[in-house]
Each structure stands twice: as structure tokens, then as C-alpha cells.
Amino acid sequence: MRYYPVGLDITGRHCLVVGGGEVGRRKAERLLEYGARVTIVDRTLTPGLEALVREGRIRHVAADYGEALLKGAFLVIGATDDRAVNDRIFRDARRRKVLANIVDDPGRCDFVLPALCRQGDLVITVATGGRSPALAKKLRRELEERYGPEYGVLLKIMGELRGRIIERGEGSDENRATFEALVDSDILERIRRGHWRKVGQAVKELAGVDLDLAAIRREAAGRPSRKSGGR
For residues 175 and 166, what is the distance between their CA atoms, to the nearest angstrom? Predict the structure, then answer.
């Protein structure tokens, strides 16, 4: 099976996780990270999930799975250790046109969850089509070594610059040349070494813009690298 790579906007979407174990906890936390409204279904929960319920971050249905729970759901993740229940989740989801992911069962997945290497707003994904989570995890670790926090900072700088440069009203070719000059410069190494004065100089020389790098650094520091396994 080959999956069509796509990024979903799940902000404010109702997402259902069936299974209150450690796998369910990881799936719920990742959905929360991207702004979903999460409901967890199981009679018992891990301490981590119980804490999320107490904090009001997720809703808990203390019951066995039933098809009616899919009403209004955008997607469902089946994370139980009961193959018959997981099969019911998938069949019910298909009937109700709800996207489904059954953990460790690629044949019953409308989508797979890639391994993530994340630095701020920079997200690099690794997917193996559900064939080898172990390989996806290994590749994610290699990416984390290659792409450090400096990439998240650079992306914030580029985001700040983009609006200002476009507002100048120059042609798209000129704008593209400016962006590419910055990316191809030694600015990443300057960020990596903490040479912020030189970072500012590079931005000024190549883009003609004065940035508040202190604010960008504070914002970047407030959003640490996140990582997640995948398939």
C-alpha cells in the first residue's frame, strides 16, 4: 500500500482515540500538539492520560468502544490490544467516512503517522508506509543529529523577513534571490555558534532589514524540539 503524503489541519477538529494505554497516550498527546479536540475511550487510563483529563485537555469516555462514539469525529485512532475491536473501529469508520488509523495494522489505515523531527515550525517527516516503525525511528534520530535548533531559529527569521520583503513591492525574482542568498549563506553556522551580531549583519547585508533577533531567540527558546515515533 502506498500513502499519499499530506499534512492535515486538525485545529479544533474532534479526534477520537480508542485505547487508554501508553500507545493511546502518545497518540492523544500528538493530536493535542496540533490543536485537536481529543476524546479518549477506555474504561481505564494510564496516569498520563488521567492527568490530561484532570487538566481539562482531553475528554474521557469511560466505556467500551461503540460506533455511536464516531459521531462528529474527523478521525479515529484505534490503539487497543483487541484485534476484533480494532477491526470494528476500522469498519465503522469506513461506513461513516471518518479517517481511521489502526495502530500496527497498515491494512486498516486510511493514513499513517510518520516519525517527526521537529525544530520549531520546521517539521521533517519519515514514513515507511507502515512497514517498519523501527527504521522510521532510526532515520528520525539521524535527522535530529543533522538538523538542530538553529534550523528552527532560521525559519523564524525567514518568516519575519518574508512579509517585510514582499511588502517592498519588488519582483518575485528579486525576492527569490534574496531568500536564496540568505539560505545559502553561512547564517546557519552563525546561529549555531551564537554569533548573533553577525547574524544581524548577514540579514542586513543580504535582505536590507533590521530584525529584533532577541525577540526571535526568546520565541524560539519557548518552543523546544519535539519528536515522535512513526511508521
Answer: 7
Question: Residue 125 has which C-alpha cell?
Answer: 517527516
d(CA 157, CA 119): 13
How do beta strands 122-126 and 115-119 pair? antiparallel
123: which strand partners?
118
In this structure, are strands 58-61 and 99-102 parallel, antiparallel, or unpaired?
A: unpaired
- Say what the pTM is: 0.78
Over residues 171-187, the pLDDT tens digits come to: 889 999 999 999 999 99
Paired residues of 59 in beta bridges: 39
* Domain 1-113, CATH among 3.40.50.720, 3.90.180.10, 3.40.50.300, 3.90.1150.180: 3.40.50.720
Asked whether 133 and 229 are in contact (CB, 8 A), the reply is yes
